[in-house]
Design brief:
By secondary structure, the protein is an alpha+beta fold. 28% of the residues lie in helices and 26% in strands. The protein is globular.
């Protein structure tokens, strides 16, 4: 009987300890969104109407589309610096910005780009104008967000509405306006461990195509495979033109 009572008391003590740990954990998690309130405050990159959302087209659409008028200003969602600014057959005129939070944002199908590689950017700066260059069927901004880096397979893509605010197709957004609802703060808290890790910025190298150059010759010259050059520049063929800027690393 005494042994039974001892086991019963031990079980009660263990249950109390587990309950205290659980309550403490809930308290810490509840405070996290408030800590991030001032740290993550993305603004919408353009005025317009949401025409498509993340994950559509059988999961292949890795961004959101904002439809609007030709030459609508395109704005940077956060401070950062330009890591890519070029023309591709798929994205058209496109700008990539790396942010201190270790996200990379992509602004595609621009009618015109206003920034160059290495340029520092402040939140809300105009980086280009909305258009329909590349593979675009109408005037819109295709906006993507990636953790750590952009990859051709879009392995690190995530839904930018997690930091912009949830919007449905047909809803209107206003460029430069932050949407920091509780759902956004909670999503930011979930991403916090990733944001606090330290990663080095990617080094971008470019090559200007000369008359008579071929992709094979350039690949040998810079010691990079033809397949890799085509991947970095979204090329669907080996056709290149003089003075074209190619990203080689």
């Amino acid at each position: 009987m005494r042994d039974y009572l001892r086991r019963f008391l031990i079980a009660i003590i263990m249950a109390i300890c587990v309950s205290l740990l659980f309550l403490g954990g809930r308290h810490s998690q509840a405070a996290a969104p408030e800590e991030l309130k001032e740290r993550e405050h993305w603004v919408w990159p353009a005025d317009g109407v949401i025409s498509d959302t993340y994950g559509t087209r059988h999961g292949n659409h890795k961004g959101i589309d904002i439809a609007g008028k030709m030459d609508t200003p395109i704005l940077a969602v956060e401070d950062g610096h330009v890591v890519k600014s070029y023309y591709s057959t798929t994205y058209g005129n496109v700008v990539f910005i790396k942010h201190p939070s270790h996200f990379v944002t992509v602004y595609a199908h621009l009618n015109k780009r206003l920034v160059s590689v290495g340029q520092p950017i402040r939140q809300g700066d105009m980086i280009g104008y909305m258009g329909k260059t590349g593979r675009a069927t109408g005037i819109h901004l295709h906006f993507e967000a990636h953790q750590l880096e952009w990859r051709y397979d879009k392995r690190f893509a995530f839904n930018p509405e997690m930091l912009l605010g949830r919007m449905a197709v047909g809803e209107t957004v206003q460029g430069g306006i932050a949407a920091m609802g509780r759902d956004v703060l909670e999503a930011s808290a979930q991403l916090r461990p990733l944001l606090e890790e330290k990663f080095s910025d990617p080094v971008t190298e470019q090559y200007r195509v000369k008359k008579g150059d071929t992709l094979s010759a350039i690949a040998l010259k810079v010691n990079v495979s033809v397949a890799r050059i085509k991947e970095l520049n979204h090329l669907n063929s080996d056709v290149i033109r003089p003075n074209q800027i190619l990203i080689i690393r």
